[in-house]
Specification:
There is one protein chain. The chain is of the alpha/beta class and 519 residues long. It is 32% helix and 19% strand. The chain is built from 13 helices and 20 strands. Strand 12 and strand 13 form a beta hairpin. The longest helix is centred in the N-terminal third of the chain and has 26 residues.
Length: 519
Amino acid sequence: MRIELATSVPRSASLWRVAFLHEGRDPARGVPPPLADSIRTAAATAGFRGRDRETAAASGKDGAWLLVGLGRAPASLARLRRALRRAVGESASRSRSRLLLVFGAGVDEATLAALLPHLALADYAFERYKSPAKKVRPPGRTSAVVVPAEGVATKSLRSAVAEAQVVAEAVSWARDLGNTPGNDLGPAELARAAIEAGRRDGLTVQVLGKARIAAERMAGLLAVNAGSARPPAFIVAEYRPAKPRGTAVLVGKGITFDSGGISIKPAASMGEMKYDMMGAATVLACVRAAKALRLPIKVVALAPVTENLPSGSATRPGDILRFRNGKTVEVDNTDAEGRLVLADALAYAAKFRPDVILDFATLTGAVLIALGHECAALFTDDEKLATELLAAGEARGERLWRLPLWDDYRENLRSEWADMKNTAGRTAGTIGAAVFLKEFVPKEIAWAHIDIAGVAHFEKEHAGYAAGATGFGVALTMDFLKRRFGTSSARGVRPRAGAGKVRRRMPRGSDPGAGARKS
């Protein structure tokens, strides 16, 4: 959705007018005066009080309104996202593509700034596989004029609008990747999407194929890939500003379909395992957004990509792997594959001498039991990093909850035959996975693991997100990088343009990195 910030009250009759109002005796409190009286008349006519999830269509003094209730102030971002989805859905049902969105008291500058990326995504729909008769509307045709509440400084929100459009574009791209089924998105296809995006955005993209992966001693990625007919890929995408203030490496799990391997999953909901590559989609989208925002930091995305399938050549429970850092791992369960490919990427990250490493992964089902769908799990030993990430998550509506990373849990990984197992048993499963990853993080580097299994996708609409992939983590990461490294001195954001360094195009299903050269 295209967003315009109003500096005066628009009067175009072609705009579908929507007011988002908190509950109270005067729901129109805080609405700019030229519109407040009209909204009060409409609210009185409809008996509208502003209760959460309440909607009413009524006419005011100068035309019709859709009134959307937010409940008691202040509304959370989840409530605001839900309200936006209702308003956009109503506009689509009436074939209205130009919206006037008015906010009353209780939606302050910080809240509105955090809401803008969600507004830009409010009309998102993945309809690639639907026949024309089933499609709602072509994407990108909806536009919105936003009228903030009284007292909100529109001048300071202008840069937030531009940033929101950038973040929304990156998130939409990540969502499209996640929503694509496994038959059309294997390792080669995901690598090709990264290459094509790199060429458009002016990024450096390198794809390591199976031979290079073996040469780099990435035992985890090779072991997980052993059961698949599709070769693995290891994607390296880089944004390199002229004078970087530091380096951040973002690692993302990229299992394009996860059957569990020999330790096969139950059939129920296995189709959702196409979303097991959302960590990779997220970090690749972050590099795109960092370039468009001209952040003053080198950002590197590392994405180990493969399927996890059973076959006669698949890795077996009980197999022992030797990783590039010399540590050995007994594969206790082939469905604990994400930590094996992440271990390779985390160890490889040392090549870039990063100041900070963040990894995103749909890693454990146990995190859904612990935290549900309302937040992601955060693990780090670095107090400063934890503080910054928690604050960024709250500011952007992508909340994190910190769990312990104590060495006491290391005993649960003990193996009789190797340095460790890849599972820690049924108890504290999410923590055990994080403790395992810690074994492969380069020493003395600030690192955080973010388990997004509960928030990377939803089976049905939830908290204002459409069903499917969410792109959780992109807005959070951009906020964090600005907190830690500052913003660019260059004005504005960079449009999507330029020619990146691209290795080569690949036929579908081919080895995505065969013959790729080092950049």
